Amino acid sequence: MENDYVIKIRKEWDIVTARNAGRDISSRLDFDPINKAKLITAISELARNIHQHARQGEIRIEIIRERMKNGVKVIAIDEGPGIENINKALEVGYSTRGGLGFGIPGVKKLMDEFSIDSKVGIGTIVTFIKWQITRNIY
């Protein structure tokens, strides 16, 4: 579809490419500045996770339309080591690499819909949606 992006994450610069794709697609949907920043931050965080933990993967970004609303759906896929304990990974402060542990829990908090599936030794798929807020003009 012409509204879709697929960004291969192989090197650090690809994180910037993914952020820019999120910025472009949220601008086309006329996201307000706060929700645009939330979307771009979430995309950046997952792209960075792919780069640091799996070394390669991809970020898929697409416009979705459902009933009377528009949104952006992002799917982050990697073939990395997987996450042993998803519940633990969703706790703020938990990190396997000495980071602050805000990454995945932060993405979940910023988005309207969020799911994660991970299998040790196979990889991880994170899917999230940010819906466009309809602004009333009075």
Automatic annotation (TrEMBL):
Keyword Nucleotide-binding: yes
SUPFAM superfamilies per record: ATPase domain of HSP90 chaperone/DNA topoisomerase II/histidine kinase
GO molecular function terms noted in the UniProt entry: ATP binding
SMART domains: HATPase_c
Histidine kinase/HSP90-like ATPase domain span: 34-134
ATP-binding keyword on record: yes
Highest taxon, organism lineage: Bacteria
Stored CDD domains: HATPase_RsbT-like
InterPro entries hit by this protein: HATPase_C_sf, HATPase_dom
Key words, A-Z: ATP-binding, Nucleotide-binding
Name of protein: ATP-binding protein
Source species: Peribacillus glennii
